[in-house]
Amino acid sequence: MKMLSLLLAFLLVPITSFGSVTDNSLDIQALNANRAKYDGKQLTLHGFLVIGPESMYLVKRLGYDKDYWAKDSGCLSLLNTGDLGNKEDLYNGKYVEITGLFRANNYSYGISLSECGLTGLDINGDPDNHIVIEHRSHGEQP
Fold it and tell me: Which stretch is the leader sequence (predicted)?
């Protein structure tokens, strides 16, 4: 019986590793610098949402003004966002936890003026279940 329990535990370990990757040391800049390693993986990240007429992305800090297209950019486009409806103002500028499928190349999503660089996070058209506002004041930077 003990051997059967050990065998089941051994077999279940690889299955549990297919879920969402939450790496507290992984920030947007590190993710972009290692994009091939994370391409196609479900990730949970933290950052500030920027939403506007020509912007919909996650940044490591508000006021991020570096080169969005650099390999180690601190900006990540949101892809397949669905309809944010009246939540644009609710999400804009907020520090959030966001879960989605990381894409090292967002060209397959078409041309968009709201992207910030080549990489993106696909939230499957469901912002309500993929974006959680963290309890942090608007001006507080991580």
Answer: 1-19
For strands 120-122 and 75-79, give the pairing. Answer: parallel
pLDDT digits (tens, 9 = 90+) for 26-44: 789 999 999 999 999 999 9
Task: Tell me, letter by letter, the H, E, C secondary structure of the chain.
Answer: CHHHHHHHHHHHHHHHCCCCEECCCCCHHHHHHCHHHHCCCEEEEEEEEEEECCEEEEECCCCCCCCCCCCCCCEEEEECCCCCHHHHHHHCCCEEEEEEEEECCCHHHCCCCCCCCCCEEECCCCHHHHEEECCCCCCCCC
Burial of 141 (0-12, 13-18, 19+ CB in 10 A): exposed
Distances in Å between the Cα of 15 and the Cα atoms of 26, 31, 63, 100 are: 22, 24, 40, 19
Scanning the structure block, which residue is given the tokens 């949970």? Answer: 44
pTM summary value: 0.75
The architecture that CATH gives domain 20-133 is Beta Barrel (2.40)
Domain boundaries, given as residue ranges, for the chain:
20-133
